[in-house]
Amino acid sequence: MNSTIFSLFSLFFLCTHIVSSSPNKIIPRLSPLLGTILRDEAQDTIPASIPAELKTYFYTQTLDHFNYNPESYATFQQRYVVNSKYWGGANTSAPILAYLGAEAPLDGDLTGVGFLTDNAPRLNALVVYIEHRFYGQSVPFGKLEDVLKNDSVRGYFNSAQAIADYAELLLYLKRNLSAQHSPIIVIGGSYGGMLAAWFRLKYPHIALGALSSSGPILYFDGITPQNGYYSIVTKDFKEASESCVETIRESWSQIDELVSKTSGLSILSQKFKTCKELNKSSELKNYLEYIYDVVAQYNHPPTYPVNVLCGGIDGAPKGSDVLSRVFAGVVAYKGNKTCYDTNEYNYPSSTNLGFSWQTCTEIVLPIGRGINETMFPPAPFDLNSFTEDCRRAYGVSPRPHWVTTYYGGHDIKMVLHRFASNIIFSNGLKDPYSSGGVLEDISDSVLAVSTVNGSHCLDILPAKQSDPQWLIMQRKREVEIMEGWINNYNADLLVFKQ
Ligand SMILES: *[C@@H]1O[C@H](CO)[C@@H](O)[C@H](O)[C@H]1NC(C)=O
Ligand SMILES: *[C@@H]1O[C@H](CO)[C@@H](O)[C@H](O)[C@H]1NC(C)=O
Ligand SMILES: *[C@@H]1O[C@H](CO)[C@@H](O)[C@H](O)[C@H]1NC(C)=O
Ligand SMILES: *[C@@H]1O[C@H](CO)[C@@H](O)[C@H](O)[C@H]1NC(C)=O
Ligand SMILES: *[C@@H]1O[C@H](CO)[C@@H](O)[C@H](O)[C@H]1NC(C)=O
Ligand SMILES: *[C@@H]1O[C@H](CO)[C@@H](O)[C@H](O)[C@H]1NC(C)=O
Ligand SMILES: *[C@@H]1O[C@H](CO)[C@@H](O)[C@H](O)[C@H]1NC(C)=O
Protein backbone atom coordinates (compact mmCIF):
# COMPACT_ATOMS: atom_id res chain seq x y z
CA MET A 1 0.00 0.00 0.00
CA ASN A 2 1.22 3.48 -0.69
CA SER A 3 1.70 4.55 2.87
CA THR A 4 2.52 8.14 2.00
CA ILE A 5 -0.88 8.80 0.53
CA PHE A 6 -2.74 7.19 3.37
CA SER A 7 -0.82 8.63 6.21
CA LEU A 8 -0.81 12.10 4.73
CA PHE A 9 -4.57 12.34 4.66
CA SER A 10 -5.07 10.72 7.97
CA LEU A 11 -2.58 12.74 9.92
CA PHE A 12 -2.94 16.13 8.48
CA PHE A 13 -6.54 16.76 8.86
CA LEU A 14 -7.27 17.29 12.50
CA CYS A 15 -7.79 20.49 14.38
CA THR A 16 -5.69 19.26 17.21
CA HIS A 17 -2.51 17.70 15.97
CA ILE A 18 -2.24 14.15 17.23
CA VAL A 19 0.80 12.00 17.71
CA SER A 20 0.22 8.47 18.85
CA SER A 21 2.73 6.16 20.40
CA SER A 22 0.88 2.89 20.06
CA PRO A 23 -2.28 1.69 18.37
CA ASN A 24 -4.48 1.80 21.45
CA LYS A 25 -3.05 4.75 23.22
CA ILE A 26 -4.13 7.90 21.49
CA ILE A 27 -2.40 10.89 22.88
CA PRO A 28 -3.85 14.18 21.87
CA ARG A 29 -1.24 16.84 21.64
CA LEU A 30 -2.82 20.20 21.40
CA SER A 31 -1.73 22.34 18.56
CA PRO A 32 -0.57 25.28 20.68
CA LEU A 33 2.17 23.05 22.04
CA LEU A 34 3.60 22.53 18.61
CA GLY A 35 6.80 24.33 18.08
CA THR A 36 7.79 24.37 21.69
CA ILE A 37 11.52 24.02 21.52
CA LEU A 38 13.17 21.37 23.65
CA ARG A 39 9.81 20.04 24.62
CA ASP A 40 9.87 17.52 27.40
CA GLU A 41 8.93 14.25 25.75
CA ALA A 42 6.86 13.30 28.79
CA GLN A 43 4.42 16.07 27.89
CA ASP A 44 3.30 14.02 24.95
CA THR A 45 2.14 11.18 27.13
CA ILE A 46 0.00 13.10 29.60
CA PRO A 47 -3.62 12.93 28.52
CA ALA A 48 -5.54 16.16 28.81
CA SER A 49 -7.62 16.16 31.98
CA ILE A 50 -11.30 16.76 31.48
CA PRO A 51 -13.13 19.43 33.52
CA ALA A 52 -15.65 18.15 36.05
CA GLU A 53 -18.60 20.00 34.50
CA LEU A 54 -18.37 17.78 31.43
CA LYS A 55 -20.69 14.78 31.75
CA THR A 56 -20.30 11.78 29.50
CA TYR A 57 -23.30 9.89 28.09
CA PHE A 58 -23.91 7.17 25.55
CA TYR A 59 -26.73 7.16 23.04
CA THR A 60 -28.06 3.95 21.52
CA GLN A 61 -27.51 4.86 17.90
CA THR A 62 -28.92 3.26 14.74
CA LEU A 63 -26.27 1.53 12.64
CA ASP A 64 -27.89 2.23 9.29
CA HIS A 65 -30.19 5.22 8.92
CA PHE A 66 -30.93 4.74 5.26
CA ASN A 67 -32.05 1.15 4.74
CA TYR A 68 -34.63 -1.16 6.19
CA ASN A 69 -32.78 -4.45 6.08
CA PRO A 70 -32.78 -6.55 9.23
CA GLU A 71 -29.17 -5.62 9.99
CA SER A 72 -29.94 -1.91 9.52
CA TYR A 73 -31.68 -2.00 12.87
CA ALA A 74 -28.55 -2.98 14.75
CA THR A 75 -27.39 -0.37 17.22
CA PHE A 76 -24.17 0.81 18.81
CA GLN A 77 -23.29 3.08 21.70
CA GLN A 78 -22.31 6.60 20.66
CA ARG A 79 -20.46 8.80 23.09
CA TYR A 80 -21.45 12.39 23.73
CA VAL A 81 -20.41 14.84 26.38
CA VAL A 82 -22.56 17.63 27.81
CA ASN A 83 -21.66 20.81 29.65
CA SER A 84 -24.79 22.46 31.05
CA LYS A 85 -22.99 24.82 33.41
CA TYR A 86 -23.72 27.93 31.34
CA TRP A 87 -27.05 26.95 29.86
CA GLY A 88 -29.91 29.41 30.26
CA GLY A 89 -32.37 26.51 30.25
CA ALA A 90 -35.22 25.30 28.11
CA ASN A 91 -37.64 27.94 29.34
CA THR A 92 -35.64 30.74 27.81
CA SER A 93 -34.98 28.82 24.57
CA ALA A 94 -31.31 29.24 25.35
CA PRO A 95 -29.15 27.89 22.51
CA ILE A 96 -27.19 24.67 22.15
CA LEU A 97 -23.68 24.67 20.72
CA ALA A 98 -23.01 21.25 19.23
CA TYR A 99 -19.51 20.14 18.32
CA LEU A 100 -19.60 17.56 15.54
CA GLY A 101 -16.76 15.12 16.09
CA ALA A 102 -14.33 14.36 13.29
CA GLU A 103 -11.78 11.66 12.52
CA ALA A 104 -10.48 11.12 16.04
CA PRO A 105 -11.59 10.09 19.49
CA LEU A 106 -13.51 12.89 21.16
CA ASP A 107 -11.15 13.16 24.14
CA GLY A 108 -8.70 15.64 22.65
CA ASP A 109 -11.47 17.93 21.42
CA LEU A 110 -13.08 18.32 24.86
CA THR A 111 -10.27 20.58 25.95
CA GLY A 112 -8.60 21.18 22.58
CA VAL A 113 -11.59 22.85 20.93
CA GLY A 114 -12.24 25.71 23.29
CA PHE A 115 -14.55 27.90 21.22
CA LEU A 116 -17.74 26.34 22.59
CA THR A 117 -17.01 26.62 26.30
CA ASP A 118 -15.28 29.97 25.83
CA ASN A 119 -18.46 31.43 24.34
CA ALA A 120 -21.12 29.45 26.21
CA PRO A 121 -21.38 32.01 29.06
CA ARG A 122 -21.98 34.87 26.63
CA LEU A 123 -24.64 32.90 24.72
CA ASN A 124 -26.08 31.13 27.81
CA ALA A 125 -25.52 28.01 25.78
CA LEU A 126 -25.58 24.32 26.48
CA VAL A 127 -22.49 22.67 25.05
CA VAL A 128 -22.48 19.17 23.61
CA TYR A 129 -19.61 17.30 21.96
CA ILE A 130 -20.55 14.26 19.89
CA GLU A 131 -18.11 11.57 18.82
CA HIS A 132 -18.02 10.51 15.17
CA ARG A 133 -19.07 6.91 14.57
CA PHE A 134 -16.18 4.41 14.35
CA TYR A 135 -13.79 6.59 16.36
CA GLY A 136 -12.88 6.52 20.04
CA GLN A 137 -15.54 4.86 22.15
CA SER A 138 -18.17 4.96 19.40
CA VAL A 139 -17.06 1.97 17.35
CA PRO A 140 -19.87 -0.45 16.42
CA PHE A 141 -19.13 -4.09 17.31
CA GLY A 142 -15.75 -4.08 18.93
CA LYS A 143 -12.33 -2.78 18.04
CA LEU A 144 -11.74 -0.55 15.04
CA GLU A 145 -8.88 -2.74 13.78
CA ASP A 146 -11.23 -5.72 13.59
CA VAL A 147 -14.28 -3.85 12.39
CA LEU A 148 -12.36 -2.32 9.49
CA LYS A 149 -11.67 -5.86 8.28
CA ASN A 150 -15.36 -6.72 8.39
CA ASP A 151 -16.89 -5.75 5.08
CA SER A 152 -20.45 -6.04 6.34
CA VAL A 153 -19.85 -3.37 8.99
CA ARG A 154 -17.34 -0.86 7.60
CA GLY A 155 -19.73 0.11 4.79
CA TYR A 156 -21.68 2.06 7.43
CA PHE A 157 -18.61 4.19 8.07
CA ASN A 158 -19.34 7.30 6.03
CA SER A 159 -20.25 10.96 6.41
CA ALA A 160 -23.93 10.66 5.53
CA GLN A 161 -24.44 8.11 8.32
CA ALA A 162 -22.35 10.28 10.65
CA ILE A 163 -24.38 13.44 10.19
CA ALA A 164 -27.58 11.40 10.44
CA ASP A 165 -26.26 10.20 13.82
CA TYR A 166 -25.80 13.82 14.85
CA ALA A 167 -29.33 14.68 13.71
CA GLU A 168 -30.92 11.80 15.59
CA LEU A 169 -28.89 12.39 18.72
CA LEU A 170 -29.50 16.14 18.83
CA LEU A 171 -33.26 15.69 18.48
CA TYR A 172 -33.16 13.10 21.25
CA LEU A 173 -31.16 15.45 23.47
CA LYS A 174 -33.63 18.29 22.93
CA ARG A 175 -36.56 16.01 23.80
CA ASN A 176 -34.72 14.76 26.83
CA LEU A 177 -34.11 18.30 28.04
CA SER A 178 -37.57 19.51 27.00
CA ALA A 179 -35.66 22.03 24.94
CA GLN A 180 -37.72 21.88 21.75
CA HIS A 181 -37.31 25.59 21.16
CA SER A 182 -33.61 25.87 21.84
CA PRO A 183 -31.80 26.61 18.57
CA ILE A 184 -28.76 24.49 17.75
CA ILE A 185 -25.58 25.83 16.19
CA VAL A 186 -23.26 23.12 14.90
CA ILE A 187 -19.52 23.62 14.99
CA GLY A 188 -16.73 21.58 13.51
CA GLY A 189 -13.16 21.89 12.28
CA SER A 190 -11.30 20.41 9.34
CA TYR A 191 -13.22 17.29 8.20
CA GLY A 192 -15.60 18.14 11.05
CA GLY A 193 -15.91 21.62 9.52
CA MET A 194 -17.13 20.04 6.31
CA LEU A 195 -19.62 18.03 8.35
CA ALA A 196 -20.91 21.17 10.07
CA ALA A 197 -21.52 22.96 6.75
CA TRP A 198 -23.09 19.89 5.19
CA PHE A 199 -25.23 19.40 8.28
CA ARG A 200 -26.74 22.86 7.99
CA LEU A 201 -27.48 22.26 4.30
CA LYS A 202 -29.11 18.87 4.95
CA TYR A 203 -30.79 19.48 8.31
CA PRO A 204 -31.89 23.14 8.47
CA HIS A 205 -34.75 22.07 10.75
CA ILE A 206 -32.23 20.83 13.30
CA ALA A 207 -29.35 23.31 13.08
CA LEU A 208 -30.06 27.03 12.98
CA GLY A 209 -26.54 27.64 11.71
CA ALA A 210 -23.06 26.25 11.32
CA LEU A 211 -19.52 27.32 12.00
CA SER A 212 -17.31 25.44 9.56
CA SER A 213 -13.73 26.06 10.64
CA SER A 214 -11.03 25.17 8.10
CA GLY A 215 -13.37 22.84 6.25
CA PRO A 216 -11.98 22.38 2.72
CA ILE A 217 -15.32 21.49 1.14
CA LEU A 218 -13.96 22.47 -2.28
CA TYR A 219 -10.93 20.14 -2.25
CA PHE A 220 -12.93 17.57 -4.21
CA ASP A 221 -13.50 16.51 -7.75
CA GLY A 222 -11.04 18.92 -9.35
CA ILE A 223 -12.63 22.13 -7.98
CA THR A 224 -9.39 23.08 -6.22
CA PRO A 225 -6.08 22.58 -8.08
CA GLN A 226 -4.21 19.50 -6.85
CA ASN A 227 -1.24 21.52 -5.69
CA GLY A 228 -3.28 23.93 -3.57
CA TYR A 229 -2.12 22.35 -0.35
CA TYR A 230 1.62 22.30 -1.08
CA SER A 231 1.55 25.69 -2.75
CA ILE A 232 0.43 27.21 0.54
CA VAL A 233 3.00 25.23 2.54
CA THR A 234 5.64 26.65 0.21
CA LYS A 235 4.20 30.16 0.42
CA ASP A 236 4.23 30.02 4.23
CA PHE A 237 7.89 29.06 4.20
CA LYS A 238 8.72 31.73 1.64
CA GLU A 239 7.06 34.37 3.78
CA ALA A 240 9.17 33.21 6.70
CA SER A 241 12.43 33.03 4.74
CA GLU A 242 13.37 32.72 1.07
CA SER A 243 16.71 31.16 1.90
CA CYS A 244 14.98 28.54 4.05
CA VAL A 245 12.85 27.54 1.04
CA GLU A 246 15.93 27.38 -1.18
CA THR A 247 17.71 25.12 1.29
CA ILE A 248 14.73 22.78 1.50
CA ARG A 249 14.27 22.79 -2.26
CA GLU A 250 17.89 21.78 -2.77
CA SER A 251 17.89 19.16 -0.04
CA TRP A 252 15.86 16.50 -1.85
CA SER A 253 18.36 15.93 -4.66
CA GLN A 254 21.22 16.09 -2.15
CA ILE A 255 19.60 13.28 -0.21
CA ASP A 256 19.33 11.23 -3.41
CA GLU A 257 22.91 12.01 -4.32
CA LEU A 258 24.21 10.97 -0.93
CA VAL A 259 22.20 7.75 -0.95
CA SER A 260 23.56 6.78 -4.36
CA LYS A 261 27.03 6.58 -2.82
CA THR A 262 28.55 3.69 -0.86
CA SER A 263 27.17 3.60 2.70
CA GLY A 264 25.15 6.68 1.80
CA LEU A 265 22.14 5.51 3.81
CA SER A 266 24.30 4.93 6.82
CA ILE A 267 25.84 8.40 6.56
CA LEU A 268 22.37 9.88 6.11
CA SER A 269 21.10 8.02 9.19
CA GLN A 270 23.95 9.45 11.24
CA LYS A 271 23.54 12.92 9.86
CA PHE A 272 19.87 13.00 10.85
CA LYS A 273 20.35 10.99 14.05
CA THR A 274 17.59 8.60 13.05
CA CYS A 275 16.55 6.17 15.79
CA LYS A 276 16.61 3.30 13.31
CA GLU A 277 18.99 2.83 10.42
CA LEU A 278 17.33 4.13 7.23
CA ASN A 279 16.49 1.46 4.66
CA LYS A 280 15.60 3.86 1.90
CA SER A 281 15.78 7.59 1.36
CA SER A 282 12.00 7.92 1.21
CA GLU A 283 11.81 7.16 4.93
CA LEU A 284 13.68 10.37 5.61
CA LYS A 285 12.07 12.39 2.85
CA ASN A 286 8.57 11.49 4.01
CA TYR A 287 9.48 12.40 7.56
CA LEU A 288 10.83 15.79 6.52
CA GLU A 289 7.85 16.47 4.33
CA TYR A 290 5.54 15.64 7.21
CA ILE A 291 7.32 18.04 9.47
CA TYR A 292 7.11 20.85 6.92
CA ASP A 293 3.41 20.17 6.41
CA VAL A 294 2.70 20.04 10.15
CA VAL A 295 4.48 23.28 10.92
CA ALA A 296 2.67 25.07 8.08
CA GLN A 297 -0.74 23.68 8.96
CA TYR A 298 -0.37 24.34 12.67
CA ASN A 299 1.60 27.55 12.31
CA HIS A 300 -0.08 28.96 15.40
CA PRO A 301 0.84 32.01 17.41
CA PRO A 302 2.69 32.83 19.51
CA THR A 303 5.50 30.46 18.48
CA TYR A 304 4.80 30.22 14.72
CA PRO A 305 6.61 26.92 14.15
CA VAL A 306 7.46 27.75 10.52
CA ASN A 307 9.60 30.58 11.85
CA VAL A 308 11.12 28.29 14.44
CA LEU A 309 12.07 25.67 11.85
CA CYS A 310 13.38 28.18 9.33
CA GLY A 311 15.24 29.91 12.14
CA GLY A 312 17.06 26.62 12.70
CA ILE A 313 17.89 26.21 9.01
CA ASP A 314 19.03 29.81 8.51
CA GLY A 315 20.79 29.91 11.85
CA ALA A 316 22.99 26.86 11.25
CA PRO A 317 26.71 27.67 11.63
CA LYS A 318 28.20 29.51 8.69
CA GLY A 319 29.43 27.14 6.00
CA SER A 320 27.08 24.30 6.99
CA ASP A 321 26.08 22.14 4.03
CA VAL A 322 22.46 21.89 2.90
CA LEU A 323 21.66 18.68 4.76
CA SER A 324 23.20 19.93 8.00
CA ARG A 325 21.00 22.99 7.70
CA VAL A 326 17.91 20.89 7.15
CA PHE A 327 18.81 18.84 10.20
CA ALA A 328 19.32 22.02 12.22
CA GLY A 329 15.75 22.94 11.25
CA VAL A 330 14.49 19.61 12.57
CA VAL A 331 16.36 20.13 15.84
CA ALA A 332 15.03 23.68 16.21
CA TYR A 333 11.47 22.42 15.83
CA LYS A 334 11.64 19.04 17.56
CA GLY A 335 14.21 19.87 20.16
CA ASN A 336 17.63 18.38 20.77
CA LYS A 337 16.93 14.67 21.06
CA THR A 338 19.16 11.65 21.33
CA CYS A 339 17.55 10.40 18.12
CA TYR A 340 14.71 11.20 15.71
CA ASP A 341 12.05 8.63 14.98
CA THR A 342 11.27 8.92 11.29
CA ASN A 343 8.26 6.68 11.84
CA GLU A 344 6.79 9.03 14.42
CA TYR A 345 3.81 9.93 12.24
CA ASN A 346 3.13 6.46 10.89
CA TYR A 347 2.12 4.45 13.91
CA PRO A 348 -1.40 3.12 13.64
CA SER A 349 -3.95 5.21 15.51
CA SER A 350 -7.69 5.22 15.17
CA THR A 351 -7.30 8.37 13.09
CA ASN A 352 -4.85 6.69 10.73
CA LEU A 353 -6.94 3.56 10.45
CA GLY A 354 -10.34 5.17 10.24
CA PHE A 355 -9.47 8.02 7.94
CA SER A 356 -7.66 5.67 5.56
CA TRP A 357 -10.98 3.95 5.06
CA GLN A 358 -12.82 7.23 4.66
CA THR A 359 -10.35 8.64 2.15
CA CYS A 360 -10.38 5.37 0.22
CA THR A 361 -14.12 5.46 -0.19
CA GLU A 362 -15.78 8.83 0.07
CA ILE A 363 -13.43 11.61 1.22
CA VAL A 364 -11.17 11.51 -1.84
CA LEU A 365 -8.94 14.57 -1.60
CA PRO A 366 -6.81 14.82 -4.73
CA ILE A 367 -3.79 16.49 -3.14
CA GLY A 368 -0.60 16.41 -5.18
CA ARG A 369 2.06 18.56 -6.81
CA GLY A 370 3.86 18.78 -10.11
CA ILE A 371 7.45 19.50 -11.09
CA ASN A 372 8.92 22.74 -9.71
CA GLU A 373 5.52 23.94 -8.46
CA THR A 374 6.50 23.85 -4.83
CA MET A 375 9.55 23.40 -2.62
CA PHE A 376 8.88 19.65 -2.69
CA PRO A 377 9.82 17.03 -5.28
CA PRO A 378 6.95 16.24 -7.64
CA ALA A 379 4.27 13.85 -6.38
CA PRO A 380 1.16 14.18 -8.51
CA PHE A 381 -2.08 12.71 -7.26
CA ASP A 382 -2.81 9.78 -9.51
CA LEU A 383 -6.34 8.49 -9.16
CA ASN A 384 -5.50 5.18 -10.85
CA SER A 385 -2.74 4.21 -8.47
CA PHE A 386 -4.72 5.58 -5.54
CA THR A 387 -7.64 3.39 -6.58
CA GLU A 388 -5.36 0.39 -6.90
CA ASP A 389 -4.00 0.98 -3.39
CA CYS A 390 -7.51 1.22 -2.00
CA ARG A 391 -8.66 -1.90 -3.80
CA ARG A 392 -5.68 -3.76 -2.41
CA ALA A 393 -6.34 -2.52 1.11
CA TYR A 394 -10.12 -2.82 1.27
CA GLY A 395 -11.34 -4.45 -1.92
CA VAL A 396 -13.37 -1.37 -2.84
CA SER A 397 -12.78 1.60 -5.13
CA PRO A 398 -12.94 5.23 -4.08
CA ARG A 399 -15.87 7.28 -5.38
CA PRO A 400 -14.16 10.60 -6.15
CA HIS A 401 -17.35 12.25 -7.42
CA TRP A 402 -19.68 11.28 -4.62
CA VAL A 403 -19.06 14.19 -2.26
CA THR A 404 -19.90 16.73 -4.94
CA THR A 405 -22.85 14.64 -6.08
CA TYR A 406 -24.32 14.37 -2.62
CA TYR A 407 -23.37 17.69 -1.04
CA GLY A 408 -22.39 19.86 -4.00
CA GLY A 409 -19.34 22.08 -4.35
CA HIS A 410 -19.19 23.01 -8.03
CA ASP A 411 -20.32 26.60 -8.69
CA ILE A 412 -20.91 26.92 -5.00
CA LYS A 413 -21.68 30.62 -5.01
CA MET A 414 -24.28 30.35 -7.74
CA VAL A 415 -25.86 27.29 -6.17
CA LEU A 416 -25.95 28.46 -2.58
CA HIS A 417 -26.49 32.19 -2.72
CA ARG A 418 -30.28 31.84 -2.89
CA PHE A 419 -30.58 28.49 -1.19
CA ALA A 420 -28.35 28.47 1.86
CA SER A 421 -28.20 30.62 4.96
CA ASN A 422 -26.46 30.84 8.32
CA ILE A 423 -23.08 29.30 7.63
CA ILE A 424 -19.71 30.73 8.63
CA PHE A 425 -16.77 29.40 6.66
CA SER A 426 -13.74 30.38 8.70
CA ASN A 427 -10.19 29.95 7.46
CA GLY A 428 -6.67 30.96 8.23
CA LEU A 429 -4.97 31.68 4.95
CA LYS A 430 -1.69 30.16 6.13
CA ASP A 431 -3.47 26.84 6.52
CA PRO A 432 -2.65 24.71 3.48
CA TYR A 433 -6.23 23.41 3.55
CA SER A 434 -7.59 26.93 3.10
CA SER A 435 -6.84 26.36 -0.60
CA GLY A 436 -9.98 24.20 -0.62
CA GLY A 437 -12.01 26.45 1.65
CA VAL A 438 -14.78 28.94 0.96
CA LEU A 439 -12.99 32.29 1.09
CA GLU A 440 -15.66 34.62 -0.26
CA ASP A 441 -19.04 35.56 1.11
CA ILE A 442 -21.78 33.64 -0.66
CA SER A 443 -24.73 35.65 0.63
CA ASP A 444 -25.68 37.94 3.54
CA SER A 445 -25.65 35.03 5.93
CA VAL A 446 -23.28 32.54 4.28
CA LEU A 447 -20.09 34.28 5.21
CA ALA A 448 -16.38 33.76 4.81
CA VAL A 449 -14.38 34.89 7.83
CA SER A 450 -10.68 34.60 7.01
CA THR A 451 -7.49 35.81 8.61
CA VAL A 452 -4.32 36.42 6.64
CA ASN A 453 -2.02 34.98 9.28
CA GLY A 454 -4.31 32.28 10.68
CA SER A 455 -3.65 28.55 10.56
CA HIS A 456 -5.65 25.32 10.71
CA CYS A 457 -8.75 25.57 12.98
CA LEU A 458 -7.10 28.32 14.96
CA ASP A 459 -10.36 30.16 15.65
CA ILE A 460 -11.96 27.23 17.46
CA LEU A 461 -8.99 26.50 19.71
CA PRO A 462 -9.14 27.80 23.28
CA ALA A 463 -8.65 31.54 23.68
CA LYS A 464 -5.28 32.41 25.23
CA GLN A 465 -3.73 35.46 26.83
CA SER A 466 -1.16 35.63 24.05
CA ASP A 467 -3.71 35.65 21.21
CA PRO A 468 -3.03 38.36 18.63
CA GLN A 469 -5.67 41.01 18.04
CA TRP A 470 -6.69 39.66 14.62
CA LEU A 471 -7.56 36.30 16.18
CA ILE A 472 -9.57 37.91 18.96
CA MET A 473 -11.44 39.93 16.32
CA GLN A 474 -12.11 36.85 14.18
CA ARG A 475 -13.69 35.01 17.08
CA LYS A 476 -15.64 38.08 18.14
CA ARG A 477 -17.07 38.44 14.65
CA GLU A 478 -18.08 34.79 14.61
CA VAL A 479 -19.94 35.08 17.90
CA GLU A 480 -21.65 38.27 16.79
CA ILE A 481 -22.86 36.56 13.63
CA MET A 482 -24.24 33.73 15.74
CA GLU A 483 -26.00 36.21 18.03
CA GLY A 484 -27.62 37.68 14.93
CA TRP A 485 -28.91 34.25 13.92
CA ILE A 486 -30.26 33.67 17.41
CA ASN A 487 -31.99 37.07 17.55
CA ASN A 488 -33.68 36.41 14.21
CA TYR A 489 -34.67 32.98 15.44
CA ASN A 490 -36.21 34.37 18.60
CA ALA A 491 -38.18 36.90 16.57
CA ASP A 492 -39.40 34.09 14.29
CA LEU A 493 -40.31 32.02 17.29
CA LEU A 494 -42.64 34.77 18.54
CA VAL A 495 -44.33 35.02 15.16
CA PHE A 496 -44.64 31.35 14.27
CA LYS A 497 -45.34 29.81 17.67
CA GLN A 498 -48.20 32.07 18.58
C1 LIG B 1 -40.22 26.16 32.98
O1 LIG B 1 -41.53 26.30 32.52
C2 LIG B 1 -42.40 25.29 32.99
C3 LIG B 1 -43.77 25.46 32.33
O2 LIG B 1 -44.11 26.80 32.19
C4 LIG B 1 -42.49 25.40 34.51
O3 LIG B 1 -43.33 24.38 35.02
C5 LIG B 1 -41.09 25.24 35.09
O4 LIG B 1 -41.12 25.43 36.49
C6 LIG B 1 -40.13 26.21 34.47
N1 LIG B 1 -38.80 25.89 34.92
C7 LIG B 1 -37.93 26.80 35.31
C8 LIG B 1 -36.61 26.30 35.72
O5 LIG B 1 -38.21 27.98 35.35
C1 LIG C 1 -18.88 -8.81 11.08
O1 LIG C 1 -19.58 -8.14 12.10
C2 LIG C 1 -20.87 -8.71 12.34
C3 LIG C 1 -21.57 -7.81 13.35
O2 LIG C 1 -20.86 -7.77 14.56
C4 LIG C 1 -20.69 -10.12 12.86
O3 LIG C 1 -21.95 -10.71 13.06
C5 LIG C 1 -19.92 -10.93 11.83
O4 LIG C 1 -19.65 -12.20 12.35
C6 LIG C 1 -18.62 -10.23 11.48
N1 LIG C 1 -17.98 -10.93 10.39
C7 LIG C 1 -16.72 -11.33 10.46
C8 LIG C 1 -16.19 -11.99 9.23
O5 LIG C 1 -16.04 -11.15 11.46
C1 LIG D 1 -31.88 11.82 29.36
O1 LIG D 1 -32.90 11.29 30.17
C2 LIG D 1 -32.58 10.11 30.84
C3 LIG D 1 -33.80 9.59 31.53
O2 LIG D 1 -34.58 10.64 32.04
C4 LIG D 1 -31.41 10.36 31.75
O3 LIG D 1 -31.06 9.19 32.44
C5 LIG D 1 -30.25 10.85 30.93
O4 LIG D 1 -29.14 11.12 31.75
C6 LIG D 1 -30.62 12.06 30.15
N1 LIG D 1 -29.53 12.44 29.28
C7 LIG D 1 -29.08 13.67 29.20
C8 LIG D 1 -27.92 13.95 28.33
O5 LIG D 1 -29.57 14.57 29.80
C1 LIG E 1 14.22 -0.38 8.33
O1 LIG E 1 13.63 -1.67 8.23
C2 LIG E 1 13.48 -2.33 9.49
C3 LIG E 1 13.00 -3.75 9.21
O2 LIG E 1 11.84 -3.72 8.45
C4 LIG E 1 12.52 -1.55 10.36
O3 LIG E 1 12.37 -2.15 11.62
C5 LIG E 1 13.05 -0.15 10.54
O4 LIG E 1 12.10 0.62 11.26
C6 LIG E 1 13.31 0.51 9.19
N1 LIG E 1 13.95 1.79 9.41
C7 LIG E 1 13.26 2.94 9.36
C8 LIG E 1 14.04 4.17 9.60
O5 LIG E 1 12.07 2.99 9.13
C1 LIG F 1 22.33 18.46 22.10
O1 LIG F 1 22.53 17.54 23.15
C2 LIG F 1 23.83 16.98 23.16
C3 LIG F 1 23.86 15.89 24.19
O2 LIG F 1 23.16 16.25 25.34
C4 LIG F 1 24.85 18.08 23.40
O3 LIG F 1 26.15 17.54 23.37
C5 LIG F 1 24.73 19.11 22.29
O4 LIG F 1 25.57 20.20 22.54
C6 LIG F 1 23.30 19.62 22.20
N1 LIG F 1 23.17 20.47 21.02
C7 LIG F 1 22.55 21.63 21.05
C8 LIG F 1 22.47 22.36 19.75
O5 LIG F 1 22.05 22.09 22.06
C1 LIG G 1 12.86 22.70 -12.63
O1 LIG G 1 13.80 23.58 -12.06
C2 LIG G 1 15.14 23.20 -12.29
C3 LIG G 1 16.06 24.10 -11.49
O2 LIG G 1 15.66 25.42 -11.61
C4 LIG G 1 15.41 23.26 -13.81
O3 LIG G 1 16.73 22.86 -14.07
C5 LIG G 1 14.45 22.32 -14.53
O4 LIG G 1 14.58 22.43 -15.92
C6 LIG G 1 13.00 22.65 -14.13
N1 LIG G 1 12.13 21.63 -14.70
C7 LIG G 1 11.00 21.92 -15.32
C8 LIG G 1 10.23 20.76 -15.89
O5 LIG G 1 10.56 23.04 -15.39
C1 LIG H 1 0.83 38.90 9.15
O1 LIG H 1 2.12 38.63 9.66
C2 LIG H 1 3.14 39.40 9.03
C3 LIG H 1 4.48 38.88 9.52
O2 LIG H 1 4.52 38.88 10.93
C4 LIG H 1 2.93 40.86 9.32
O3 LIG H 1 3.91 41.64 8.69
C5 LIG H 1 1.55 41.26 8.80
O4 LIG H 1 1.28 42.59 9.15
C6 LIG H 1 0.46 40.37 9.36
N1 LIG H 1 -0.79 40.66 8.68
C7 LIG H 1 -1.91 40.85 9.36
C8 LIG H 1 -3.11 41.17 8.54
O5 LIG H 1 -2.01 40.75 10.56
From TrEMBL:
The keyword Metal-binding does not apply. Gene3D superfamilies: alpha/beta hydrolase, Serine carboxypeptidase S28, SKS domain. Transmembrane segments: none annotated. GO terms for biological process: proteolysis. InterPro entries: AB_hydrolase_fold, Peptidase_S28, Ser_carbopepase_S28_SKS. It comes from the Eukaryota. One of its GO terms (molecular function) is carboxypeptidase activity. Pfam families: Peptidase_S28. Keywords: Carboxypeptidase, Glycoprotein, Hydrolase, Protease, Signal. The keyword Magnesium does not apply. Residues 1-21 form the signal peptide. Belongs to the peptidase S28 family. PANTHER family: LYSOSOMAL PRO-X CARBOXYPEPTIDASE, PROTEASE S28 PRO-X CARBOXYPEPTIDASE-RELATED. This is Serine carboxypeptidase S28 family protein. It comes from Actinidia rufa.
